[in-house]
Write a structure and sequence with these properties.
heterodimer, A: mainly alpha, MetI-like fold, globular, B: alpha+beta, six-stranded mixed β-sheet, binds adenosine-5'-triphosphate, binds magnesium ion
Chain lengths: 268, 351
């Protein structure tokens, strides 16, 4: 019998452990989705099928404004983050290795490493000072905060795409009379586009579901969908929260599916 | 007859890296390529062929020296402002564009009108026989087809000079032969100056008007294929192109004295005599003027047989005898024979 090398799947109890992990991961979500269709008021006792909680959420003005605010913030934050990430990726890959490269790499990915609560407190204090100074109370703070922690998520797929790009294509463009700007516009950018779209989507999803930083940075009446839900949970919990969560889940799954399609190796 | 010089390199030096680790990829290369010429740069891997092309195209700036196109100094000009196009070894076709868009890329960048672009693209695709592939993405093409598209793309803006960096090396032998003929035809039809890089000596000999042989960053000899083959200037050129014999000699008036005492007529100058195996005739040992030798070994190659011989002073020589239609060459191992050099075939060269 030929040695096939080490294989995790050959270990004893591999199957039950794997099954257990999958159950732990997906059973709660499954329950959440199921009870969003509950006809009763409980999130634990099944009372028959109904769509009433979706309707109730849909007609709830607080949910509506929170949703719109979330989408608004996510749109602008992911736009800013993606632009910054694209430039950062171009700056860190389109050149020979330089001193301090690793340092810059770490700096860009800082939000992935610094505990979120630390960033949240820091932003709270920092923005509080600006608020006093300028009197501005708008959504700008949230957008900026979200953009900041979304940058690494947008940066990684863009950088991966850039590193996979054949540098001789840019040389070829220059050879064919394209100015540096034209080379970027007609060669680099189109080839980079799937990476940028993927980065933007990831940033959007990350922004959409943030709680910690939003909770700290938001002013009164600036609830996003996740912070609104958190607020609701402190009072009476109805399957309405399940319904909203399920809707959010569907949106996230759709966006992440797009992300994986875009970052697949050969996306022809 | 004064011809226009399309490309000139003047004392070009290119070093990579700094201090001890620095590599001299080009070491004082001076070169003039005539307008309308099919010029080939030939040399072993790492000798600086690509580097010289990149300097001409403008992807790289020389450490010192100048590059001239049509007499104008372009050393400081970026690649997009030089009337030179390149066919890259890896083709470097744009994967996000169709075949037609690839071919029309340069014209679009130059701001030409759409009807003009479409017209030129159609002509170029016809020139390389790729009309039916216009709307395909380049990833769906075979190696030979990609090569044609790369060629059409580089020819479309009608450059003064076309640089080709080993464009045929990725193709199989049959396709390579076809493309050699095709390239030669295109060069004649368009009249564009071709600077062609290869490390395949046969390719260089069959296609070029002139060949520049390079080694270790230096240009060793620039001459026509016939001259390179028959009158190499040094040991490197003689051994890189074709097979040859080297014999240490003492130059005499109009010739040289071999170590074994025989005196042969030879042109050129230097301490080494070179003679191609096919220019040596094996004769009976007592033939008039023959140099005595002993047969060491014979290797059958089909069209001819390589006869390994030893002179009386121990020097080894290989002769190439056309294989007879029937039977053996009539020379046996250990046999004493005579060698006669064809007239004008022996040359004296530098080390
Ligand atoms: N960007 C670079 N940095 C450092 N060294 C380089 C660089 N480009 C080329 N070299 C060196 O310069 C020398 C000449 O390289 P070049 O690519 O011109 O060779 P070549 O004749 O084209 O070889 P090949 O037939 O393998 O393509 C080599 O020793 C190579 O290592
Ligand atoms: Mg090369």
């Amino acid at each position: 019998m030929a040695e096939r090398g080490f294989s995790v799947s050959k270990l004893p109890a591999f199957r039950p452990v794997a099954l257990g992990v999958f159950l732990a991961l997906y059973l709660p979500i499954f329950t959440l989705v199921v009870y969003s269709f509950n006809a009763g008021n409980s999130i634990a006792v099944w009372d028959g099928f109904s769509l009433k909680w979706y309707l109730s959420a849909w007609e709830n003005d607080a949910v509506k404004t929170a949703t719109l605010r979330s989408l608004y913030i996510a749109t602008f934050a992911s736009l800013i983050a993606t632009t910054a990430a694209t430039m950062a990726a171009l700056g860190t890959t389109r050149r020979k290795a330089f001193k301090g490269q690793t340092f810059i790499y770490v700096m860009i990915n800082q939000p992935l490493m610094v505990p979120e609560i630390v960033t949240a407190v820091a932003l709270l204090i920092f923005f509080a000072q600006i608020k006093v100074f300028t009197g501005y109370q708008g959504l700008g703070y949230l957008i900026l905060a979200h953009a900041a922690f979304c940058i690494p998520f947008a940066y990684l797929p863009i950088r991966a795409r850039l590193e996979g790009m054949d540098l001789s294509l840019e040389t070829a463009a220059a050879d064919l009379y394209a100015s540096p700007w034209q080379t970027f516009r007609y060669v680099t950018l189109p080839i980079l586009a799937p990476g940028i779209a993927a980065g933007a989507m990831l940033a959007f999803v990350i922004s959409l579901d943030d709680v910690v930083i939003t909770e700290f940075v938001k002013s009164g009446g600036q609830d996003t969908l996740p912070t609104y839900m958190l607020g609701q949970m402190r009072r009476a919990i109805t399957p309405e929260v399940n319904a909203i969560s399920t809707a959010l889940l569907v949106l996230t799954v759709v966006l992440l599916t797009c992300f994986f399609l875009l970052t697949r190796k050969r996306n022809q | 007859m004064t011809q226009k010089i399309a490309v000139a390199a003047e004392h070009t030096v290119k070093s990579f890296g700094q201090g001890k680790a620095s590599v001299r990829a080009l070491d004082d290369v001076s070169l003039e390529i005539q307008s309308g010429e099919f010029f080939t740069l030939l040399g072993p891997s790492g000798c600086g062929k690509t580097t010289l092309l990149r300097l001409i195209a403008g992807f790289e700036a020389p450490t010192s020296g100048r590059i001239l196109l049509d007499g104008a100094d372009v050393t400081e000009l970026p690649p997009n402002r030089r009337p030179v196009n390149t066919v890259f070894q890896s083709y470097a076709l744009f994967p996000h564009l169709t075949v037609a868009e690839n071919v029309g890329f340069a014209l679009k960048m130059q701001g030409r009108k759409k009807p003009e672009v479409d017209d030129t693209v159609a002509r170029m695709l016809a020139l390389v026989k790729m009309e039916t592939f216009a709307t395909r993405k380049t990833a769906q093409l075979s190696g030979g087809q990609q090569q044609r598209v790369a060629l059409a793309r580089a020819l479309a803006p009608q450059p003064k000079v076309l640089l080709l960096d080993e464009p045929l090396s990725a193709l199989d032998l049959k396709l390579r032969k076809e493309m050699q003929v095709e390239l030669k035809r295109l060069q004649k039809e368009t009249g564009i100056t071709f600077v062609f890089v290869t490390h395949d000596q046969e390719e260089a000999l069959t296609m070029s008007d002139r060949i520049g042989v390079m080694s270790a960053g230096k240009l060793q000899q620039v001459a026509t294929p016939r001259e390179i083959y028959t009158a190499p200037v040094n040991r490197f050129v003689a051994s890189f192109i074709g097979e040859t014999n080297f014999l240490p000699v003492t130059p005499t008036q109009g010739g040289a004295r071999l170590g074994c005492g025989a005196v042969v007529a030879a042109a050129g100058e230097g301490p080494v005599l070179t003679i191609r195996p096919e220019q040596i005739t094996v004769t009976p040992v007592d033939a008039v003027g023959a140099i005595p030798a002993t047969v060491d070994a014979q290797v059958y190659f089909g069209t001819d047989t390589h006869c390994h011989l030893r002179l009386s002073d121990g020097e080894r020589v290989t002769a190439r005898i056309p294989s007879p239609a029937m039977g053996e060459t009539g020379v046996g191992i250990g046999q004493r024979v005579g060698l006669v050099f064809a007239p004008h075939a022996a040359r004296l060269i530098r080390e």
